[in-house]
Design a protein that fits this description.
This protein is mostly helical. The chain has a domain of 117 residues: Arc Repressor Mutant, subunit A (Orthogonal Bundle), CATH 1.10.10. It has seven helices and three strands, in the order αααβααββαα.
């Protein structure tokens, strides 16, 4: 496989990483996902649309917080998530409500009281996100080690004289 234009080459790694996906129920599942995504570029692709909406860190953290702590008011949720701005939390909650993942209940009180909680659809997503969180926890040490190795390689690569770096890149293309 040749290097694509605009891609960087890292010393010692000029191959393509590929994994046998038969353990996931067959390679056709993944081929079908990309086929659908590529044939629906100008229309709504459910995989891209939904994954794009829920995969940002604020949506995931809001779902985790509501799943772990139950019904919450805005400021309590903001406090549990931490460093999210009021505006970003408002946008995130609005999007999650729009997708049917959370419900918003406004009480006719002075001052107004608003509570958020996961819907049944939100809880079904939480179960899937819990698998992702478990995977992240179980593999965080390996990922941090890989990052450290890559940073060391990049630092070593950047210490080389410019002529040597240029010849390395040309050799690997």
């Amino acid at each position: 496989m040749t290097k694509q234009e605009g891609t960087a080459t890292i010393p010692g790694h000029n191959g393509v990483t590929n994994m046998d996906c038969n353990g996931f129920g067959g390679e056709n599942k993944f081929i079908d996902i990309f086929h659908l995504a590529n044939t629906t570029r100008n229309t709504l692709c459910p995989v891209r649309d939904i994954i794009g909406r829920i995969s940002d860190k604020w949506s995931m953290l809001a779902i985790y917080a509501l799943g772990g702590f139950g019904k919450m008011r805005f400021n309590a949720l903001k406090h549990k998530i931490g460093d999210i701005s009021q505006r970003m939390l408002t946008v995130t909650l609005r999007n999650l409500e729009h997708d049917g993942l959370i419900s918003r209940k406004v009480y006719a009180e002075v001052p107004p009281r608003v509570e958020y909680e996961l819907t049944a659809l939100g809880y079904s997503l939480l179960q899937q996100l819990a698998l992702f969180a478990d995977w992240a926890n179980n593999n965080s040490a390996a990922i941090l080690q890989a990052r450290t190795r890559m940073l060391a390689k990049e630092a070593d690569f950047n210490k080389r004289p410019n002529e040597e770096v240029g010849s390395l890149l040309i050799e690997q293309v």
